[in-house]
Design goal:
CATH class of the largest domain: Alpha Beta
Bound molecules: zinc ion
Largest sheet: 7 strands, mixed
Order of helices and strands: HHEEEEHEHEHHHHEEEEEHEHHH
Number of strands: 12
Strand order of the largest sheet: 1-2-3-4-5-6-7
Strand content: 15-25%
Length: 331
């Protein structure tokens, strides 16, 4: 795969902004091998899901520009941006954050200098408040990058090592979106049209899901964790009834062929949205039963709901049971 003149030009801009310190010339030449750090999967005409390195991303593109949904873990934004150019043969134009968590916003710093970054209004103070988390996590992907076996990842890891050593220079504004959505907004970008929707508190208090109706693709953000326990962010404003409401709202937008990109897990279909809704209902019933039996909060958190005992991300299951306990015992 060869980078065209515009791709090189864009990457020079990035290098000039200090974003790709140590990355360009040598690494870019290696990139032409066509290997990628992330797993890129076409999901529709002009749409690719990007798996690995944090929450699942989605790239929607026309002939000119791309809209990127979610920016992965700290340190990986530059790779997402460069690979998006390589894979779509276009220039990223806009980045959307589905919510504030660092595995979806950690790469924002590769986009904020020159592109629009959009998030729900309540995400902004939370993003600013987690600057230490971004700084501390910058070096984490280094080993993973080196182990991908992708030729340029080695050079990207070297660059990241430098950035991590100077993490204190990162500012909250490097990650802060410049555009906000309150409830719902149609995003038109060239031939790409999508609806950004916030239905209230769910996984956090600032979730957005992204529906690309013309291409029948839906990015759920972390309102759907496919095949695993979700993370229930009590301090981030999570709310289980609101979460279910969000899931039902999303499901109504789908038909049998809708491609669903969950925040985590495999690309799936609309059934998985209802599976997530049912998960909360079953867990709530179980927690209520245990409360009625007089079990303690700690005991409830420690007890798996049997039918989900095989799910991955057990720590997430603990947050769900704690959240439901708090909701069900609140004044
Ligand atoms: Zn999340």
């Amino acid at each position: 795969m060869h980078l065209n003149r515009r791709e090189f030009a864009c990457l020079s801009v990035l290098a000039g902004a200090g974003l790709a310190a140590g990355l360009p010339a040598r690494a870019l030449a290696r990139m032409q091998s066509g290997q990628t750090v992330f797993e890129w999967t076409p999901v529709c005409n002009g749409g690719m899901a990007v798996i690995g390195g944090g929450g699942n991303s989605l790239v929607i593109f026309d002939r000119e520009e791309a809209v990127i949904i979610d920016a992965k873990n700290p340190g990986l934004g530059i790779i997402l941006r460069i690979e998006a150019e390589m894979m779509t043969r276009t220039r990223p134009g806009v980045l959307v954050n589905t919510h504030h968590h660092a595995d979806h916003t950690g790469g924002n710093d590769a986009f904020t200098p020159d592109l629009s970054v959009i998030a729900q209004r309540k995400a902004l103070p939370r993003i600013e408040a987690q600057i230490d988390k971004y700084r501390e996590s910058l070096g984490r992907p280094i080993t993973w990058l080196r182990e991908t076996g992708v030729s340029y990842a080695e050079t990207a890891a070297d660059a990241l090592e430098q950035q991590a050593a100077n993490a204190s220079r990162k500012k909250a504004s490097d990650y802060k979106p410049g555009r906000v959505v309150d409830e719902s907004e149609e995003l038109r970008h060239g031939a790409s049209v999508m609806q950004l929707t916030h239905v209230g508190a769910g996984h956090t208090d600032n979730d957005l899901f992204v529906h690309v109706a013309r291409r029948n693709v839906l990015h759920t953000g972390d309102l759907v964790f496919e095949g695993m326990h979700p993370f229930f962010d009590i301090n981030g404003g999570a709310e289980s009834v609101g979460w279910e409401h969000g899931l039902e709202t999303m499901h109504r937008l789908c038909d049998n062929d809708t491609v669903v990109i969950p925040g985590h897990g495999k690309i799936c279909g609309p059934d998985e949205i209802m599976t997530q809704r049912d998960y909360f209902q079953r867990c709530r019933d179980a927690v209520q039963k245990w409360i009625n039996e007089g079990r303690s909060k700690d005991e409830i958190i420690d007890t798996e709901v049997e039918e989900f005992a095989h799910y991955g991300f057990q720590r997430g299951g603990r947050t769900v049971r704690e959240g439901l306990y708090l909701e069900l015992t609140a004044g």
